[in-house]
Amino acid sequence: QLQASGGGLVQAGGSLRLSCAASGRTVSSYGMGWFRQAPGKQRELVAAISSGGYTDYADSVKGRFTMSRDNAKDTVYLQMNRLKPDDTAVYFCVARRVGSVIYNYWGQGTLVTVSS
Predict the structure, then answer these.
(1) Whether the Cβ atoms of residue 29 and residue 45 lie closer than 8 Å to each other
(2) I need a surface site. Which of 10, 34, 50, 98 has the fewest CB within 10 A?
(3) Number of H helices and number of E strands within the chain?
(4) Does position 24 have pLDDT exceeding 80, yes or no?
């Protein structure tokens, strides 16, 4: 089970940190990621971290978002800085088995709203 938290309302230019706690799962054994879904837009994978710790980001968030992992807590984080109104979306924590490219495990979403 993936439990995401940390969403909320923030002004443009502000910061938020999302957390995703994995129960029954060792995050270091999975590829983890954050998708977002905004109204009228395609779902977008904004950040990912491999089991080996390699991170990758969508161009739209590169340089502003940082994904990290705390293996001891089986938790992943998404630090979001310099937020823009276009970052407004429901953010989902996801996981995939090593060797798979499909994120089969999804948590409930957490809403991030960035006001201008």
Answers:
(1) no
(2) 98
(3) 0, 11
(4) no
Token representation of residue 14 = 């502000």
Tokens of 22: 């994995």
DSSP-assigned letter for residue 59: T
C-alpha–C-alpha distance, residues 37 and 98, integer Å: 24
Q: Is residue 81 within 8 Å of 65, Cβ to Cβ?
A: yes
Q: Would you state the structure tokens that stand for residue 65, as one six-digit string?
A: 């978002």
CA dihedral 82→4→102→62, nearest 10 degrees, is 10
At position 45, the amino acid (one-letter code) is L
Contact 95/39 with Cβ under 8 angstroms? no
Return the residue matching tokens 């439990």: 3
First to last CA, the chain: 34
Query: Could you tell me the pLDDT band of residue 98, with boundaries at 50, 70 and 90?
Result: confident
Rounded CA-CA distance 18/4 in Å is 7
Give the pair of three-digit tokens for residue 108: 């409930």
User: Mean pLDDT, to the nearest integer, of 45-57?
Assistant: 95
Give phi and psi for 111, each to the nearest 5.
-85, 130
Residue 79, both tokens: 């630090």
